[in-house]
Design brief:
This protein is α/β, with parallel strands linked by helices and about 270 residues long. About 35% of the residues lie in helices and about 15% in strands. A 7-stranded mixed beta sheet has the order 3-2-1-4-5-7-6, with helices on both faces. It binds S-adenosylmethionine (SAM).
């Protein structure tokens, strides 16, 4: 346990969302300074150019966290509006972007705001929106998808990544938490510095919610399909490369993508509603 765990009491917002105030360091340490964060970024770097039509268009990054995705788009010539409700996360992102000397920071606009306020603050409509690993931290992820749809321009693309409830069940079983898996008590409570999401999402839910929000799923992939289930983590750079090749080979293939720790979707808003 981190020394601060016992001292700080974290709350959900009135809407039941978990802003990451007080979590920036832990999130950075346990994800992005660890092999799983590295693999996530490598897979996104591999998949996003395949799954999105990118033409240096403006992008709205919703719940941008520590700013990795904003930096990725800025580095590829996009002007980015990074919205994030947690001042801790936003400050961390800005500082990190400033330290990255090669990053064209002038193209990034920072906005401290939750997703629910974006239709008022930055209505767009946007031709490209990213919302990665945010829905699972919200009290009402379905309503959030409807808001993202409102922000999209007709023909616009949404890159959505969610924490996969089915993979969480599987990994609990693999770790021996059989009762938890059987009773489906999978969600975290959002208390203290725990990073188990409060609203893990299933593919069936995304399929249904996207129809109800007037969005079409055009592609899907699993992120970290194998890594979490390995009995032995890769011990050498060569083994790491082999794992990466395996992840790349099967991330869009049935049935493997379905157990990715995260599911990555491209959704579009049709030009004419159906
Ligand atoms: C797991 S982090 C993901 C950050 C980043 N998108 C990434 O992929 O690394 C979840 C983020 O969602 C933010 N968040 C929580 N509630 C939100 C809300 N209502 N609107 C927008 N972002 C929210 C948190 O503050 C946190 O930065």
């Amino acid at each position: 346990m981190h020394p601060n765990d016992k001292l700080t009491h974290y709350e959900l917002t009135q809407a039941g969302d978990r802003y990451f105030d007080g979590l920036a360091d832990k999130f950075s340490r346990s994800l992005y300074q660890a092999p799983r964060g590295e693999l996530r970024l490598t897979m996104l770097d591999y998949l996003l150019p395949q799954m999105l039509q990118l033409s240096e268009q403006k992008v709205l990054d919703v719940g941008g966290g520590l700013g990795q995705q904003a930096a990725w788009f800025a580095g590829r010539g996009h002007a980015v509006t990074m919205a994030e409700p947690s001042s801790d996360m936003l400050t961390y992102a800005q500082q990190w972007h400033r330290d990255e000397k090669t990053l064209p920071q002038e193209v990034i606009t920072y906005l401290q705001a939750p997703l629910q306020e974006l239709p008022l603050q930055v209505p767009g409509p946007w031709s490209l929106i990213t919302c990665h690993a945010v829905l699972e931290w919200l009290g009402d992820p379905q309503a959030a998808l409807a808001i993202l749809s409102r922000l999209l321009a007709p023909g616009g693309q949404l890159s959505l990544m969610v924490f996969n409830r089915d993979a969480l069940r599987f990994s609990n079983a693999v770790k021996g938490n059989l009762e938890k898996a059987l009773s489906d008590r999978l969600a975290g409570k959002g208390k203290r510095q725990r990073l188990t999401p409060i609203s893990p999402v299933s593919h069936n839910e995304i399929t249904q919610w996207s129809v109800e929000s007037g969005l079409q799923i055009v592609s899907v992939a699993g992120i970290r399909v194998f890594q979490d289930y390995l009995r032995q983590p890769p011990a050498t750079p060569a083994e790491n490369e082999t794992l990466l090749a395996l992840e790349k080979q099967y991330c869009r293939q049935d049935p493997h993508w379905r157990l990715g720790r995260y599911l990555l979707y491209t959704l579009i808003k049709p030009e004419t509603p159906e």
